[in-house]
Amino acid sequence: IILSSIAFFIRKAGDFSRPYDDQWLAPDWRDYLAACDANRAKQFAQAEALLKPLVDDDKVAVRLRVAAMRRLADALDGQGKTSEIPGLAKTFMQYYDQASCSDHLMSITNSFKRAGLWDDAQRIYERVEQLPGTHIDQVIRSIIAQAYQVSRQGDSEKALTILARAWQRHTNSTGTKEVPRIYWHEGMYHENLGRLDQAIAAYQQAIEAATPGSNLYDVATQHLNACIKKRDEQAHDTIGLKSRLRQVKSALSGLKQRLLN
């Protein structure tokens, strides 16, 4: 597979005496690669026509069928055919646990979520987290996505428990560029739970780790400022309440004294 891939790219990019042709490739792979080219050129209908036979043919190798389904999802999205994604998902979920490419798995979840298939996406994220050889950034993204799904269902506490796995994977690896996103999600879930001090601390860490001017940097700054403002308002309300309680206590003491007199 590796040698064939190298030969393919060398011949396609090389300077040869005759034009490149792909006739040496198996027909299924020729169609798949042609569909990839069509997607890149935004010729989504052409890509769909090339990919559907690969997806529907049980004799096509699972590895190629999974790749074709990922690209077909892109082609359907490109044409706005979101209503056809559930049918594709039904087929894909028969093979997702045999897939070995985290790129295909992570990519197709975006199409599934746009179609409202969050449960299917969650199962795929779980597969990516456990898939041997997956790059640490992909693993972290899959864990963050699992936590976000749980938070969408209203359980931010459980989301934080899931997110702790991201820190564990980060600690046991050579590092990941996803650290700012871990802090960002941590802050978001603490904010949902009303734990403003923890949320503020997490947002500050996200800002320190993020690239200045990036979307995450700006959004984390907005949430940080909102949490600080809310905490200050709560502190002001608490001070005001304590002052009123002291006034009430003083008034009751005076009333008691007058009654005794």
Structure report:
The protein starts with a helix and ends with a helix. It has helices at residues 2-13, 27-40, 44-56, 62-78, 85-92, 102-114, 118-130, 136-152, 156-171, 179-192, 196-209, 215-260. The longest helix is centred in the last third of the chain and has 46 residues, at 215-260. It has twelve helices and no strands. It is an all-alpha fold and 261 residues long. The chain is elongated, with a radius of gyration of 27 Å. The model has no long low-confidence stretch (mean pLDDT 87).
Helices and strands in order:
Layout: H1 2-13, H2 27-40, H3 44-56, H4 62-78, H5 85-92, H6 102-114, H7 118-130, H8 136-152, H9 156-171, H10 179-192, H11 196-209, H12 215-260
Helix pairs in contact: 2-3, 2-4, 3-4, 4-6, 6-7, 7-8, 8-9, 8-10, 9-10, 10-11, 10-12, 11-12
